[in-house]
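Q: Is it fine to ask for two folds in a single conversation?
A: Yes, each is treated on its own. Send the first.
Q: Here.
A: Result:
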Amino acid sequence: MKKKIVFSLLDSPALGGAEQYVFSHLRFLNNNGYGVLLATNNQIVKSEFLKRLNSKEKQTFKITNLPYRLDAIGNLRGLIKFFLSLPKAVIWCFLILKRLRIDYDQVICLWPGFSDRLVFSPIAKFLKCKLVWIEIGPLYPVFKRNFGFPKILYFLSQKFPDYVVTISKYSMSSILRDSKIQKRKVKLVYPGIEVTRNKTRLKKKNNSSIFSVVARLAHENEVDMVLKAFPLFLGNNKNSHLWIVGTGPQEDELKKLAQKLGIKKHVAFFGFLSEEGKMKKIKESDFFIFPRAWSWDGFGITTIEALSQGIPVLTSRFGPQVEIVRDGIEGFLYKPHDPLDLAKKMSTIVDLTSQERLALSMNALRRADYFSEKKSNLQILNLIRDLKQTI
């Protein structure tokens, strides 16, 4: 039997939705006859993924350290480091791909990271590896960075991938509009989650509503906007609470903001929680808020995690979120970056009758089925198998 391996790279600042998306696919491929080699420079990501693998999976799913950092789309300092790290990174990638080509009959590169996949794609094609890019977010904001250098790099490499997988129609439209990648190569594969509807407790109306937010505490996730909306909503809802799960560079700033707004006793910061802990908090809440309305955003996987628990969602009328939550059906949409409109929608959802809340919860469960992990993984598996036929 021919040996086949999927080689993936995660140059990650944190464990987020993009990392979860890649890991889910890699694990499924590993359980369907493919070896996996994942390289990451984030030890938290490495440790968390190793915990999730069982002893049998660890025999064929290997995680190694990524000995460089390439960031062509960060700040100017990051761009300088990009050029300084480039020789070492290129040599490392060439040697590891060359070794994989010797040891395996088929090598498939499944690469999500923007900078390294653009740099390494020529090496992969030179060594006759199959190549799948994962394009998480839209291209146009990335192309504006660092004097247009990312755009130049992209256009030099866009002929190499066999397929480009993207995670939302929002991102897909940008790829087709802002690059010259052929339409037939671009495939939409939504992120998926494991739906456990049989364990879901549908929420009934009560006198104390809990809103939860799960996010990395950084400016682009707009948790500060949620805090500003909360006192506007509290008027007739004094028993309501806001739970914030996550950590990040804005954590201290957000805690000070809660105190300044006079809502400290209504707000609980839980910091970073395990997957089990995070899902427990989502499940215990009455409503979920996904506040991010960021031009770089490709999807919001915590939105569908909340839906899978029958939790109605409040999110912005922006980008990929309108592909997930339908206004008035699984929750409500508010104007992006607008705390006043969010506060109005919070009041609207709290004032619903028990029957109306149950209807939202049932709709949320049905919507989560559309974004099932099994469906997403099967799409990637079929894509990878299609590559085998073209060798």
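Q: Second one now.
A: Result:
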Amino acid sequence: MVIALGIGVTLVLIHAGASNLTSTILLGDEKTSLQKVGDVLAPTLVALAHDEEELRNALSNAKKAADLESIQVLNHRFETVAPRGGTPAEVLLGRKLLDELSRNRSGVSLVRSPVLGDVFALVRPIVGGGYLFLALSAKGYEGRRQAILGTMVVWGSVILLVMFLFGIVLFRAIVKRPIERLLHEAGEVATGRGQFAESVEGEDFGVLKESLRSMAKRLKSDRARIESQVSELEHMNRQLMEAQEQLIRTEKLASVGQLAAGMAHEIGNPIGIVLGYLDMLTGDQLDSEQRNRAHEQIRLAIQRVDAIIKDILNFSRPALDEEATSDVVQVVESVVTLLRPQKRFNQVEISLDLEVDRGTQVAIPPSRFKQVLLNLLFNASDAMEGKGQIGVTIKRDGEVVLLTITDSGPGIPEDLLLKVFDPFFTTKEVGAGTGLGLFVCHTLVNRYNGAIEVSNAPEMGARFTLQLPTHKVTNKERR
């Protein structure tokens, strides 16, 4: 398209230039020819002015010889004197135009006649008075101009086409083929199957090939370095993931330890009951009814111990053995049930405000969810020093479940709100906390596409808000 446009523009320029040049040359020839006719006739007319017949014959012969449209002798008022019977000059051009032509020192002019059309006209003063009027049709001039212009355009087009074809051949030999070779070699280099060939002295685009070869070497070196860095990053990422999992497991074991320590007295009480009744059963002072009652109390105490141990095992079992989603209400109630017998929660009132239906699923495994809740509730109890109220609110906002835990403690200083989720950050005394609990909560919630935020409640205390995406149960999962 670009080449075609270039050819079109060139042809237009050739046509315009040829037309202008042809018009200039032919106009000059026509005017010179008519000017010479006037130069020859003017002296002759002065000599023949006394003989009207001779004058008429001379004008007729001159008209035929020069192929004129009109030749007339005019008086000073531009009225035709000779020859008689033809169309007067003042009709052909008009007296005003004749007057202008008589004052035209350049001689011949191309004018428009209402009778003859375009003509070359000359009004030349005659010695002794009057004017010689000559009119030559411009049709011959226009025909010659078109013929010459057509010839020039045709030859110009032929020359341009030949040059274009020669340019194409030259372009293919000098530019296209070397570029194709370069592109082929570049493709081989890009796929790793080859490299740039050595440049031959005098070869086209040799400098470009050397630059590409140098660039290919740098790219190969950069690719090797990038691959090495990617491998190192992947290795470091695996190490970070392993370290993160280790931190989560460590914090989970710490939570299990806190649960076990808190439940020691809960297990101790039923064990004491069992031992007491066993001592009573070894004697003979009990009748059969009392023995049956003792057996029942022992059974209840052992069931209580079994339930406590099962709660701890359910919390600490590996996440690989469980589903990927959790019943949010069930998990919250089970964690609260697990904590209420704890000694550290004896003076803590935990209230539940459930605004979601039972069976609402969130996209986080139960063990991970329980670990997050335990850490948050432990922190709330520690912040209140074991005395106060903890409120747990669950509500739904579109495809997200919002779980809010609020305590009645002193709250968190504003300058520390942005640091509470940092690893190893803690406000507890040395040895009282690892500073990993809230960090692990943040890590777990984000891993399962959730979010956790902290703020101070308007009335008093800290407030942690979990945003957990819901999980739609499919028919296959129901089955």
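Q: Anything structural to flag on that second result?
A: Two points. The chain is about 60% helix and 15% strand. Confidence is low (pLDDT under 50) at residues 473-479.
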